[in-house]
Amino acid sequence: MPAPDGQTVFLEAAPFFLVDDVVATAAYYKDKLGFTPGAFFGNPPGFVIVKRNTTRLMFRQVPADARPAARPNPDRMRHTLDSYIWVSDVDVLAEELRRRGADILVAPEESESAGRREMIVRDLNGYHLCFGRVLGWPD
Question: Which CATH architecture has domain 16-134?
Fold first, then answer.
């Protein structure tokens, strides 16, 4: 669907993560982060997409000889992330994730210089996900 100015409209993005166990990863994202896993692909399962509202994350299981698969950015360079997910209310999400037992590394805090309120969560693979709300948006 082209925009009125003739340019392509970007609709969504879905980060693609390599993991050791795609079934365990889907279960973690369901139980700890509230995502809904889609169908598994492959026999045995080797790929899945999890979804929460319009956010999707893709996971591919690597062969046993390629493990460990995860190479989280923060393990290689401090103060980095593996994914940034915008949410409508990071504080409400933080309460939900605490109840679910998620690994919250950084509780919600305001980044005055960036104009965001953010928290950082580590998944079972070691990936760092930042959930953030742009202050004043969409208000």
Answer: Roll (3.10)
